[in-house]
Amino acid sequence: MRRPSRTEAAGPSELAGVASAEAALSALPGPAAPVAEFPVPGDVRAAAFFDLDNTIMQGAAIFHLGRGLYKRKFFRKRELLRFAWQQAYFRLIGDEHAGHMQDAQDSALSIVRGHRVSELTAIAEEVYDENLAGRMWPGTRALAQAHLDAGQRVWLVTAAPVEMATIIARRLGLTGALGTVAESVAGAYTGRLVGEPLHGPAKAAAVRALAEAEHLDLARCAAYSDSANDIPMLSLVGHPYAINPDSRLRAHARRHGWRLRDYRTGRKTIRVGVPAAAGAGAAVGGAFAALALQRRRR
To answer: How many other β-carbons are positioned within 10 Å of the β-carbon of residue 281?
Structure first.
């Protein structure tokens, strides 16, 4: 004769208890889904693109380059005073009238005209040691290093002069840099830009071209920036990060579910306004990027 099962032998109260327990157990979460490792080790079709100013380093690189060039008498005091006035004007008025910006660019390029590329590069190396090395955000450097440790390429993408950007990338152990390019002939600057300042949509275009040349899959790449001006670049990749973001980028990142990282502590970092940086950059003799930081308001 078959013995009744425990459930069959149980009374109504016990049956209710068993059902309750089973329901509770079924509601418990199963094993946690594994979190995908990022950056993905060995993914040769992935890379990372980092903005420079206020993303990897605190402040604007060309501002410090300008100070270094002035210290070495690369340009005259009256030129510094003129660009200091432009900086104050833009900071106080906030007007980026095309005529003012064009004047700044023309003046900037006239300063660099005739100077040797090797001269500017040598000064930029010294400026890195004197002013820039201690301004790198450790948190952002760690992110870049994570990509390198995963076997991925890491590029700086900045409106700063490509000579300065290349030095910074090399000193940080990165793969290379994209920056604003000044025309040179026989090793001397002509006072003209090659193409546009590497800013806003131009950055996105440069990253897209580099990705095509390097056979990268942008959906597997990452990009990092502090500025809403770089939304075109950030929107290209599958892993966009807002680093020390300005208010517009922070809002955009939250709306789109982008990752945010803020490595600033205490008082918020004082940002050199784009026009201000452009004015300082003009004074730097690397002034081919004077308008490189021109903010294109959207």
So the answer is: 34
> Annotated catalytic residue: which of 43, 51, 226, 262?
51
Please tell us whether the domain made up of 47-68+116-274 is placed in CATH 3.30.230.10: no
> Is 53 designated active site?
yes
Q: What tokens were used for 113?
A: 């005209």
CB 41 within 8 A of CB 212: no
* Between residues 85 and 285, the one the model is more confident about: 85
Quote the pTM value.
Answer: 0.74
Catalytic residue among 43, 53, 95, 262: 53
CA dihedral (67, 52, 231, 198) positive or negative: positive
Residues whose CB falls within 8 Å of the CB of residue 27, separated by 6 or more in sequence, listed in order:
none
Where do the domains of the chain lie? 47-68+116-274
Contact at 8 Å (CB) between 240 and 254?
A: no
Please state the three-class secondary structure of 136-184 as a single string: ECHHHHHHHHHHHHCCCEEEEEEEEEHHHHHHHHHHCCCCEEEEECEEE
For residue 67, the model assigns a pLDDT of 82
- Are the C-beta atoms of 215 and 233 separated by less than 8 Å? no
pLDDT band at 85, cuts 50/70/90?
low
For tokens 């490189």, the residue is 292
Residue 122 pLDDT > 70, yes or no?
A: yes
Partnered with residue 130 across adjacent β-strands are: none
Looking at per-residue pLDDT, the higher value among 109 and 280 belongs to: 109
What's the pLDDT at 113? 82
- Give Cα 138 distance to the centre of its chain: 14
Query: 52: which 2 tokens?
Result: 């420079």
Question: For the residues 1-24, what does the mean pLDDT come to?
Answer: 46
Pairing state of beta strands 222-225 and 188-193? unpaired
Q: By percentage, how much of the chain surpasses pLDDT 90?
A: 50
For position 259, what pLDDT does the model report? 95
